Amino acid sequence: MPRRQTPDPLALRIGQRIRELRTQAGLSLEKLAYESELGSKGHLSDLERGLTRPTIATLQAIAGRLGVALLDLVTFPEEDDRQRLVEALRTLPEREIERLVRRYAPSRPSALRVGEPGRDRGEALSRRLGERLRERRLELRRDAAEVAGRAGLGTEEYLAIEAGEADPTLRTLAQIADALEIPLHELFRAPI
C-alpha cells in the first residue's frame, strides 16, 4: 500500500503519542524500529507522522519494546480527566498500582497487557479485544450486522475481528468504537 501524502488524524495522534513515549524512553527511531522488530526506521517515521495507519500487532510490538501497556499508546491525557488519570498511573510503582487495584477493583481482571510470550501474544490480544467487542455489542443488544453497518464494515469482516481472527487497524477499531458508543481507549480495557 502506498504511503499516505497527508496524515490521518487518528494515526497522527497515535504517532505523536509513540514519539512522546519513545523520547521519554531515550530511544532513537532506528533503535525502536530495530528492537521492536518493525525493521524499518522509515516505517516507524511514517507511523509517527500519521502517514501509516498502525495495526494492533504493530502497536503491540512498539508497546512491548517501550515497556508500556498497549492502552498507553491510545491514551491522550489532554483529552479528559480519565485519560489523564491513566497516564498518571503509568508512572506509579507496580506496588502502588497493586494497592489501588485491591482497593478500587478487587474482582476485576487486569487490563490488556503486552508481554505474553512469542507469537501467541498477538493472538491472545486479538481474542481479548474480540471478547470486549462482543461483550459491548451484547450490552447494547445489537446484532453483529447492525454494528458492522454502523462501523462501515461487512458483517463477516466485523465477526472476524470479534472472533479475534483479524488484525484491524486503529481506524477500523475507532469506527467500531463509535458504532458501539464507547471511547476507543475503553476497547483496550479488560472486560468488566
Top CATH class of the largest domain: Mainly Alpha
Structural class: mainly alpha
Order of helices and strands: HHHHHHHHHHH
Superfamily at the CATH H level of the largest domain? lambda repressor-like DNA-binding domains
Query: How far is the N terminus from the C terminus?
Result: 37 Å
Q: Report the principal-axis shape.
A: globular
Question: How would you state the average pLDDT, rounded?
Answer: 84
Characterization of the model:
The chain is mainly α. It folds into two domains: 1-115, 434 Repressor (Amino-terminal Domain) (Orthogonal Bundle), CATH 1.10.260; 120-184, lambda repressor-like DNA-binding domains (434 Repressor (Amino-terminal Domain)). It contains eleven helices and no strands. Helix 2 crosses helix 3, helix 9 packs across helix 10 and helix 9 crosses helix 11 (170-179). It is globular and about 45 Å long. The chain starts with 8 loop residues before the first helix and ends in a 13-residue tail after the last helix. 32% of the residues are buried.
In short:
This protein is mostly helical and 192 residues long. It has helices at residues 9-24, 29-35, 41-48, 56-66, 70-73, 81-90, 94-104, 120-139, 144-151, 155-162, 170-179.
What distinguishing features does this structure have?
192 residues, 434 Repressor (Amino-terminal Domain), 0% strand, globular
